[in-house]
């Protein structure tokens, strides 16, 4: 009887070990990392409307800091990067359905975190105003902006709209659909203020003489940018995190950033 019990216990242990090995193998085999390598392509979701991170050119090509970074990631994997154009309103849904990674100045939020994983952050950023230079002293604080006679303009679907609707409840708020030409609306006198990421305001004041970033070194709130990767896929997340860690540590990211910002 004791021998039978011993044999039964041993059999159960063997089955458990085999099951554990099979399970571990299944997890590894199911990683997006293996899919990308087998497919030979990295599917990259990006909006293409957010300089300096991602911009969709008239010739149908994408460019920017995060496009160069996506190309670097694809090269490290030995695959090509295939881009999927999306919008801020549809970013998370399109990423889950169509892509392996999402890039392009994506801010980390808890709402997005419910459906995706994020890599380690690569930029610390935050919301700050951009205005006509003559008005810079008028719009230093949320209170100064949140007045009925202030025309606040914002692009739809992302963290800019969420911030504006939360904090500018008294201002005259309008949603403008094109995040590329939205800054021209301020220059033309059709709007007074846009509050967006400090990194974007620094670039846009260079591209649009007459516009000034307001205290970009002291934004209204804390924010970070990272890349979206599939929720639950630790193997793929770890690979992308390690690649990003090396890019940040070796100066590769800084060189790419300087190329677009300086």
Describe, in plain words, how this protein is organized in 3D:
The protein has 262 residues and is an alpha/beta fold. It folds into 2 domains: 34-124 and 224-261, 3-Layer(aba) Sandwich (D-Maltodextrin-Binding Protein, domain 2); 127-213, D-Maltodextrin-Binding Protein, domain 2 (3-Layer(aba) Sandwich), CATH 3.40.190. 45% of the residues lie in helices and 21% in strands. The chain contains 11 helices and 15 strands. It has helices at 2-29, 32-39, 65-77, 91-98, 110-113, 142-145, 159-167, 182-187, 198-207, 234-250, 252-261; strands at residues 41-46, 49-50, 54-56, 62-63, 80-85, 101-102, 116-118, 123-125, 127-132, 151-154, 172-175, 193-197, 211-213, 223-225, 228-230. The strands form 6 sheets. The protein has a 3-stranded parallel β-sheet with strand order 5-1-6. A 3-stranded antiparallel β-sheet has the order 2-3-4, covered by helices on one side. A 3-stranded antiparallel β-sheet has the order 12-9-13. The longest helix is centred in the first third of the chain and has 28 residues, at 2-29. The chain is elongated, with a radius of gyration of 23 Å. Residues 1-20 form the signal peptide. It is found in: Cell envelope. Its EC number is 4.2.1.51. One of its GO terms (molecular function) is prephenate dehydratase activity.
